[in-house]
Amino acid sequence: MKKVIAVMLTAGLAACDTLPASGPLSSQIEKQAGKSRQELNRPNAAVYDVVDVDQKTARMVASFSSSLLSRRFGIGGAASRVVIGVGDQLKISIFEAGSDGLFSTSESKQTTIEVVVQPDGTGTIPYVGPIKLAGRTQEEARKAILEKLVNKAVEPDVLVTAAGTTSRSVTVSGAVGKPSSVELSLAGDRITEVIARAGGPSSEPYETYVTLVRGNKTASVLLKSLIENPRENIYVDPRDQIFVTHDPRTFTVLGEVAKNARQNFGANDLNLLEAIAMAGGGSDDKVDAEGYFVFRYEEPEIVMDLLGPQRFHDLQAKGMMANKDGRYPIVYRFNMHAPDSLIVGQSFPIKNRDIIYASRHPTVDFLKFMQLIATPVGTASGVRTLTD
User: PANTHER family under this entry (predicted)?
Assistant: First the structure.
């Protein structure tokens, strides 16, 4: 009898992988982590890694999420150097001490000349000729013009002001009041200032995403992050592109919870514990408390910080691929048996489109197997009794 029971237990455990189930076991998720497609013998398998979340990890993810723009673009403290560009309209006022100079009369000792910077970067000043203006600050342009007027005008002085800054403009489009090309001021403008000049956002800040495109770099953040974290509200550069989109944030909860469903955030912020509570919490008799997972496509900088550069590059070599937004698959694991998980869970932010999965306990599959084999055994026993 002992041998029979042992065989049944072995067969039951082996059969667990083929039983009906709502998703993988915690052990199955961990087993596939870090494996290449060749190792998995699945040519199209997704390559990912699993990260156990502790207080340090939760703080790192939360901190990076609130500083994406300043880290990726490497700016945020001050506006870039403001220079004159092609197409800018300048007002150049020339003053002379005498009343019989090149630019003065008995009625006025000054003349104002309007200049448009040409494609070659120059502007033409009477009695001076073409002079390089593009790439210079207003003060540098003033000094260059003044130098050319020495020995020509009577004790000259020059004032340069901008009438139009076509070269210093950014494009704002999407869910704003007035999508347009916005000219930047000479003092520099931050993202929220530019959006305000384009009519402001049309939706709530916690449902509005701002995407900044600069050269070959791009990043998207919530508008509320720019408001709450001034360092993220970086200065824009000429020719930047800003896209504002309304995208109500959602997350999906699957597995051994009371309600498998897609949920709306409905708030500015949401942490892991709040998200699980919104799904009715884990099932007491089925959920594996050590197997709560968050499946996410994460920013490459976060993945590299979490795994280390060498591990990150090794996984790329094994076939880990970014999605269309340049983010990489990562799986966060939480051990709800640990008492401090109730603290760590409050620090870990849920992001838009996250998948939260509560895996079932391994004994659930074994009990299913026992129920499957119990029915035919009981039926056979009943038949034998009637026959006897």
Answer: POLYSACCHARIDE EXPORT PROTEIN GFCE-RELATED (PTHR33619:SF3)
Domain ranges of the chain: 18-68+249-367, 89-164, 168-245
Task: Give the β-pairing of 250-255 and 261-264.
Answer: antiparallel
The answer, yes or no, to whether residue 15 has pLDDT greater than 60, is no
Residue 190 burial by CB count (10 A; 0-12/13-18/19+): exposed, middle or buried? middle
Domains 18-68+249-367 and 168-245 share a fold: yes
Which DSSP letter does residue 330 get? E
Homologous superfamily of 89-164? wza like domain (3.30.1950.10)
Residue position matching structure tokens 């210079």: 136
How far is it, in rounded angstroms, from Cα 181 to Cα 191? 13
Give residue 83's pLDDT band: very low, low, confident or very high (50, 70, 90): confident
Question: Which whole-number Å values give the CA distances from 141 to 39, 87, 102, 121, in the listed order?
Answer: 65, 15, 20, 12
CATH architecture of 18-68+249-367: Roll (3.10)
- How many CB atoms are closer than 10 A to CB 253? 21
**Distance, CA of 311 to CA of 51 (rounded, Å):** 12
Q: What secondary structure does DSSP assign to 217-239, as a single string?
A: EEEEEEHHHHHH-TTTSPBP-TT
Q: What is the pLDDT of residue 74?
A: 62
pTM of the model: 0.68
What confidence tens digit (pLDDT) does each residue in 115-163 have? 999 999 999 998 889 999 999 989 999 999 999 988 888 888 999 988 8
Helix (H, G, I), strand (E, B) or coil at 187: coil
pLDDT of residue 241: 95
Q: Is the dihedral of CA 274, 276, 278, 280 positive or negative?
A: negative
Question: Can you say whether the dihedral through the CA atoms of 257, 258, 262, 263 is positive or negative?
Answer: negative
List Cα–Cα distances, 87 to 12, 84, 114, 130, 168, in angstroms: 78, 9, 12, 15, 9
pLDDT of residue 228: 85
> Are the CB atoms for 125 and 133 separated by under 8 Å?
no
Q: Does domain 168-245 have CATH number 3.30.1220.10?
A: no
